[in-house]
Amino acid sequence: MGLISWIIIGALAGWLANKIIGKGERKGCFTNIIVGIVGAFIGGFVLSLFGKEYSVDGLNIESILIATLGAVILLWLSQKFFKK
To answer: What is the pTM of this model?
Structure first.
């Protein structure tokens, strides 16, 4: 998967996760991309614990859902550990 695909998936997943778990906070585009890319790795790891290998392997719905799941987990954990 190319760099542009990672950026697009990261941006979409980060934005969706922010809409799902965010409390009206606006995050920048760069932050959404980073959260989405890290979320892709987290989502793939968490889903692999259930026995099947899931991966973010292209610009498709499955990859976006996996990355969004991981990004939601990442944002939830960051809210728990870094409360204001």
So the answer is: 0.86
